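Researcher: Sequence of RapA2 cadherin-like domain-containing protein follows. Predict its structure.
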Amino acid sequence: VDPGFDDDDAPVEAIAITAASVSNGTFEFSTNGTDFHPVVGVSETQSLLLDDTDKLRFVPNADFFGNPGTLAGNGSFKFRAWDQRSVTGSSTAATADVATGTKVDTSTNGGTSEFSSNERAANIIVDSVDDAPTATIPNLTDSRLTVLEDAGAQTINGFVTNLDDQGSTFESGQTLSFALTHLSGTDNTTLFSAQPVLTVDGSDPTRANLTWTPATDANTGDTEGPSVFRVTLNDTGSLANGGANSTILTSNLQFVVTSQNDAPVLENITPVLSVDEDQSLGSNTGTTIAALIADGSITEAKDAVNPGLDDDDTPVKAIAITSASVSNGTFEFSHDGGAFEAVVVSATQSLLLDDTDKL
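Model: Prediction complete. Tokens:
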């Protein structure tokens, strides 16, 4: 604004706002530097007076950016210079000084008036700021994150929904991605053979699919508990002007792998049960299953986190007799030191004996 001059030729930097466009935001003014008020209803006959110590600001609408002053009706204002003398035709007394923040008639201007004849327009530029992406994620204990041990590869399509990169013209070309960070519970390097991954759906960019694979014989057990991950959604926007290109989603992911029994493995062995010819029943005290089955002949998978079938992880030497050939004698068993009984089994009725039982 070209300086105006009052009677003592001191520079003047006061203005009268004659028009304001607010289609992409709101102009606000303050005469005390703290309290702001909207600039509304200004015109040639209702022009807002502001001096050099007053403040003017533009509050853009959410997500608007650009140079609104270059577009018709988009965020600009017009003004005249004011020499801060009393204003003829103001709503206050014609001989009194007019306070800033007051609206007056500036339709009479130039010559000996208080206002410049020339009018200028101010253009407002709103710098772009990257908005953090948003999404909707299920709650922490979503039942779909609980699977059985050895369940294999898992996929939940559309697990995350409402993906939004805050896609204005400025941000529409950005790429969204997820980062999963292990926070607590069962060690993820032990629990998973393929770590949990969230990937934006190729056919529906508003969704993301979750995949993971539990490791063989691994489970979350009763001690360390569920494996918990934090989810961060990222875009490829700039941090300039205070922008944000990541969002920590409101809910963590809690993976539970429920333990289940693993069948024992029997090696290819042929145990030999020796007895003397014509040996009397009284002298035939039998052989314990532990003595009959060689060490290491029966193995059992031990879970990576929660122990397997037997609590103390000791070797297993229990058996189930599925058939018995008795053409040249009779098999008998003794359980817990009791009397011997005949072994009678079938395809659907197997005899269970542990390592202290005798045969």
